[in-house]
Amino acid sequence: RINDRVSIHERPCIVEERSRIGDWEADTVIGQHHKQAIVTLVERKTGLLKMKRVGHKTAQQVSEAMIELLAPVSLQVKTITSDNGKEFAQHKKVKQKLFSPFFFADAYASWQRGTN
Predict the structure, then answer these.
(1) How far is CA 45 from CA 17, 77, 87, in A?
(2) Quick check: 103 and 26 in contact, CB under 8 A?
(3) For 42-95, how does the pLDDT look when each residue is reduced to its tens digit (9 = 90+)?
(4) What are phi and psi for residue 44, nearest 5 degrees?
């Protein structure tokens, strides 16, 4: 369970339109034997992909990777949406560093993100 998560249903409607740059979707790709992971961030309008390998799929490593990947384009980060994986438990840290709202898809409905 992730504390203080904000539902995708509270995300601005404009995100669904893909009419602006700055709405990002986050996910992880798990490595062999669940030892490593790749953090992926995709911008919904342009399809720009940013990714970084992390040694372990922990909330700390994933949040640090997200901040590192998005900090150079922080002015173009309007929203971030992820699934409910426990690796996104430090979403508030990401939100504070990037000054961007962070939303979560419904449980068992990661398809709601649409891109990543």
Answers:
(1) 9, 12, 25
(2) no
(3) 999 999 999 999 999 999 999 999 999 999 999 999 999 999 999 999 999 999
(4) -65, -40
Are the beta carbons of 82 and 113 closer than 8 angstroms? yes
Q: How confident is the model at residue 107 (pLDDT cuts 50, 70, 90)?
A: confident
Q: What is the distance between the alpha carbons of residues 109 and 107, in angstroms, rounded to a whole number?
A: 5
Supply the pLDDT for residue 9: 96
Rounded CA separation 109/111 (Å)? 5
**Mean pLDDT rounded to a whole number for the chain:** 93
Torsion over CA: 69, 101, 60, 114 (sign): negative
Q: How far does CA 18 lie from the centroid of its chain?
A: 16
